[in-house]
Amino acid sequence: MNEPLFSRYVLKVSCPDQKGLIASCTQVLAKAGANILDLTQHTTLDLKRFFLRAVFECSEESIGHIRNHIEELAKRCQMDWDLYDNAHTRRLALFGSKTDHCIYELLLSARDGDMRCDFSCIISNHHELENVASQFKVPFYFVSSDLDKPAQEVYLRKVLAETHSEALVLARYMQILSPEFTREWAHKIINIHHGFLPAFKGAKPYHQAWAKGVKIIGATAHFATEDLDQGPIIWQSVQQVDDTCSVDQFIRIGKDVEKRTLAKALRLWLEHRVFVFQGRTFIL
Amino acid sequence: MNEPLFSRYVLKVSCPDQKGLIASCTQVLAKAGANILDLTQHTTLDLKRFFLRAVFECSEESIGHIRNHIEELAKRCQMDWDLYDNAHTRRLALFGSKTDHCIYELLLSARDGDMRCDFSCIISNHHELENVASQFKVPFYFVSSDLDKPAQEVYLRKVLAETHSEALVLARYMQILSPEFTREWAHKIINIHHGFLPAFKGAKPYHQAWAKGVKIIGATAHFATEDLDQGPIIWQSVQQVDDTCSVDQFIRIGKDVEKRTLAKALRLWLEHRVFVFQGRTFIL
Amino acid sequence: MNEPLFSRYVLKVSCPDQKGLIASCTQVLAKAGANILDLTQHTTLDLKRFFLRAVFECSEESIGHIRNHIEELAKRCQMDWDLYDNAHTRRLALFGSKTDHCIYELLLSARDGDMRCDFSCIISNHHELENVASQFKVPFYFVSSDLDKPAQEVYLRKVLAETHSEALVLARYMQILSPEFTREWAHKIINIHHGFLPAFKGAKPYHQAWAKGVKIIGATAHFATEDLDQGPIIWQSVQQVDDTCSVDQFIRIGKDVEKRTLAKALRLWLEHRVFVFQGRTFIL
Amino acid sequence: MNEPLFSRYVLKVSCPDQKGLIASCTQVLAKAGANILDLTQHTTLDLKRFFLRAVFECSEESIGHIRNHIEELAKRCQMDWDLYDNAHTRRLALFGSKTDHCIYELLLSARDGDMRCDFSCIISNHHELENVASQFKVPFYFVSSDLDKPAQEVYLRKVLAETHSEALVLARYMQILSPEFTREWAHKIINIHHGFLPAFKGAKPYHQAWAKGVKIIGATAHFATEDLDQGPIIWQSVQQVDDTCSVDQFIRIGKDVEKRTLAKALRLWLEHRVFVFQGRTFIL
Fold first, then answer.
1. Minimum CA–CA partner of D275 in chain B
2. End of a domain among B85, B100, B126?
3. Is the pLDDT of residue A80 over 90?
4. Region at A274 (left for phi over 0; alpha for psi -120 to 50; beta for the rest)
């Protein structure tokens, strides 16, 4: 006689606020014999929006049942929802340039199980990252900057399809993606900006920050959208600096902030904690 | 025709984990027509303990109904639970000594509505706080250190009863309360310790920290228990210091950390976010 | 026979970099029998600028001698320099509006000796601060917003002169000073901006920050210049926020960040640590 | 005709306080034509101890001259002093166990020039680190735990001598060194402890911290001495945690804090900023 197999799932729901939403959602889970381990629900009173994230365990047989009932509920309540099976490991494409500090951070975290994902490929317009790619046995793809943007993106699409990539991480990629491309991957491209957005958009943020004499520098992980450095912010971290620092030291200190911020943002996303609504995120 | 009066409540539940707990709780609320604004549920897998905090609005008529149904549920599931009416402003007794930095922080926060409570009295074994007490129109009570401990505590009990105090805040009180007294007010005495507990217990924590050459100092707000400086930690904050600081500067910087930490801990407690289980807190 | 009186002084020097500058400065002090307690010197290689701050003790008789020799040196080396006698307590005018959280922070710090200054007056275009002014026995001056800007500033100049004010602290003043006025008090007006500059300039920074979904809010203390919110930054502090916060909670949390940031900036300025060069500060 | 070669040096001085010390030191430098770029001097009034660190440039010919004059001065003033040539890259032996998060952090930082040192070898009682050692072309030495402690240390001494190691970094080494060994390498063994010392000494600090319900976890880099986890603290960092974290998450978050803290401490040491006096450090 076999024990039923219990797996872990995450349910995400976002919809206009109304009474009884949590009760309805949790009843669906309860009736299917699920055990909720963590649930967070928040309603922004400013926007009258309901957000819910629930982590639960249930038998594999029950999950189809749950899916159907949530789907019904969703229709009635105009819900955006998703149900993730933790057994599925997401496949992410890593985009980089020459520097590898963010790349190492992510590859090591994934290897150690500190973040649940597989890196499907490393894509770069330089050759510097081939070495780290081969160490971690991740396929490396070179996309030449000699190609025009549309040709580059034709190639990118091909690579992403072949490697079964589900999302993209721009780990200091330094190239601009076309509006069409960013729309195709809406809320599936996570970028790290080396400035404390919305200050210091654009190029050379550390030079801007130094000239301004800021006392704290920061980095911002956000979804890439067609508006450069304007997409919804996922995470931000900062580091105090003192005025004996040169721009070069800002850059050095910044590397540490960047990699931590990107890793944290990616972890939040992989844990299905990131909701996007009205141009900003809500992290539960 | 009158609109029903909607008030805001907080429900706190803690019990051994089992399936369907959230569904049961939220159904009680849904059936009574309540609207949940924020709900956080966490099960510690290490201790198999379920914690839930829900903020909801409902009509005043429905609340008795909710109370009865939760009570039934609690019996079945060995729940510890509480239901707080936000309309009720808690009355807190402030205990102090000579310094008033924590006292001012709390009185100003309460006055501005940044923290929801009334201060029922200020109690001290010195006269320095009479001035601030009179400015904020809070009754001041002097308890002489010439009295022996039992006599002091007889007087304290009398004052606390007369002022309808529901909990105590030790804002650098510097006196030790008897085990009997702390047990009477179990989990209702919030103390601020000027050290980053569990390091630097006991007297002169800043002197200890300086001698040790720590690079970060901190303060810890915790429930006072009969074991000095050992009660469950509610909140901790830290501040980086540099090695040109003297002990006096540690003390000065520490004042700022202390008052912030105590205010934050008190706010968490007033928002009914603090659960105590197996000697530690869980803040939701 | 009397002991010579030893007082404490701070020497600040800023000039184009060249060899032997520290040796020259410290020799002047050594020859006068001064004892240096703390000295920090930094040369920004980017700007080839030398900055020095020295705290020293010497007899009152020697200080004139030191002053003369530094003056000679300054001529040869194009030095900007200042020599401050710690025995002199600076007189600062506090400008406020309706909220008093920054005002209390500064008044209490000064009263406790945590910051060395006297507050010469409190000036406001509202009456709310009269109460705190009288508690701390600081003269209160009301400047009516019904007057036009020039008339207001005529009055301000008069008050500042009569109260022997040496510098101004804008503790959430909310009024704009004229370019002439800010130039008269160049690098002597310390303002607190309730945003993490250079992001969120102008009005309602917390509303801007919330709409943007930032994960960290901050405050910036800076010298007021004729360009609104653009003057050299003295200090910045931040606080992580979570996405269940409403704008109102941002404002509440921000109050705490603002007062700490302003107090820290003022303390740095009172300790003669703030150098201004090429539009930014260097804090030693 | 050749330009003289200018190199960069760091002078460190520590001695009982007296007048004229900075003037004497800086005059030696000035007379030799040196240009000071950064100088920090601090006298702890509590301990009457003078500390000075100066970064300067001078011709290679002058440095012998400077050395002789400082030596003379040192005799008169009971100075502990050192003069470091930045052209010399220090050789450090890395000790590890199975986990490589700290090892990668240091190897990558050194490779990128973010920290100025060479890693002479990696030493471990496990084989897990052989892979990273070979990637970074650092010789790997296995020291078997089957050997008794004295035999192990005979071997360690041999390896350290052969690899010309000047100092040791214990990057989660997990083995205890003998008192003799730590004395031989006094203030030249930098260890990372995965707890916020002086709290949580000894084994399983994250388990201790979780049971205590701390709200902030930390790591401490310190010099290893014969008293386990008691050596002078070089650097500490912390990370706020929330109560939904399990012990495993503490361990995961801690890895990040550990590697940052160790890297920062090592950087401070390599920049000759760390003074040890009376059992604690002073970082200038």
1. B243
2. B85
3. yes
4. beta
